[in-house]
Amino acid sequence: MIRSDSRLERILHKGVFAVTAEVVPPRSADGAAVTEQARALVGYADAVNVTDNPTGAVHMSSVAGAASVAMAGLEPVVQLTTRDRNRLGLTSDLLGAWALGARNVLCLTGDPTSFGDHPTAKPVFDIDVLDLIRLVARLRSEGRSLVGQAMDPAPRLFIGVADLPLAPRYDPTRLEQKADAGADFVQTQIVYDVDAFGEWADDMRSRGIFERMFVLGGVAPPRGPRSARYLREHLPGVVVPDAVIRELDAAGDDAAASGVRLTVEVVAKLKAIEGLAGVHVMGLGKEESVRRVIEAAGLLPRPALA
Fold it and tell me: Facing residues of 108 across strands?
């Protein structure tokens, strides 16, 4: 059953292996920076995430970035964190994002402010991510806010969440709770250890998650051994096998190309996992590497749905 006005949802319901990517709004008031990133991904991704103050650092708002993505000809997935807004601000941004072209939302808690450029900033957390999912779902199904206020027209957004399948002390019930709250799809943390991810997928399949949600595996081409080590040491839930780092070390000046090749191999293995609905390709700031992965992985052309 199609629940939203999202092109991405229609693609997933058709059984097409979906491709999403992301853009990062700048630390400036220059909207052209978002438009340039988005234009580089037209024809390569079915929808594009617009990040919301990633790493707890100040960037242009994700809502403004979503408008630039939509104008560039791509369907945006606006990211919203409960870290920075109370329920009034979240509701307002959902209404505004819809008005500016967003048809998808990724509901997030947000990275700690201590990671960012304002480490003493006070996080909000008026509601948690489960409440945010419920808010979006109620707006879509009932046209009402959390307090029952009618909103006509209300946004009919496709609801996404994030998950860290390979994080230490992983709690599978958390993703089940997000599905219960109304989430439609999940984008996972970056995957390099496909065997471990496959074990997670088997567990989630036994819990019915693959029947209740569309699951997109996260991938990202490392630019070299240094970036791979950084991901392993600093990004929660990212497992980078030693063999990957050894191969990048051995590649020398060709490490970036080797990183793309390794990621293409990961995509091929992910496609073989029963029920996986697509991949979320993160370029780590390099759209060219995203295009190269999508091309080499045989994920083109993307479906031309209205």
Answer: 81
Task: State the amino acid at position 90 in one-letter form.
Answer: L
Q: What is the pLDDT along the chain (306 residues), one digit of tens a residue?
A: 899 999 999 999 999 999 999 999 999 999 999 999 999 999 999 999 999 999 999 999 999 999 999 999 999 999 999 999 999 999 999 999 999 999 999 999 999 998 889 999 999 999 999 999 999 999 999 999 999 999 999 999 999 999 999 999 999 999 999 999 999 999 999 999 999 999 999 999 999 999 999 999 999 999 999 999 999 999 999 999 999 999 999 999 999 999 999 999 999 999 999 999 999 999 977 899 999 999 999 999 999 875
Backbone angles phi, psi at 293, to 5 degrees: -65, -45
Q: Where are the alpha helices (DSSP H) in the chain?
A: 7-13, 32-39, 62-71, 87-99, 129-142, 172-181, 194-206, 209-212, 225-234, 242-251, 255-271, 287-296
Tell me how far CA of residue 202 lies from CA of 194, 276, 300, in angstroms.
12, 11, 28
With the CA atoms of 249, 253, 254 and 260 taken in that order, what torsion angle do they form, in degrees rounded to the nearest 10? 70
User: Full-prediction pTM beyond 0.85?
Assistant: yes
Instruction: Give the C-alpha separation, 134 to 131, whole Å.
Output: 5
Q: How crowded is residue 32: how many other Cβ atoms within 10 Å of its Cβ?
A: 10
Q: Pseudo-torsion of CA 39, 41, 42, 46, nearest 10°?
A: -140
**What residue type is 2 in one-letter code?**
I
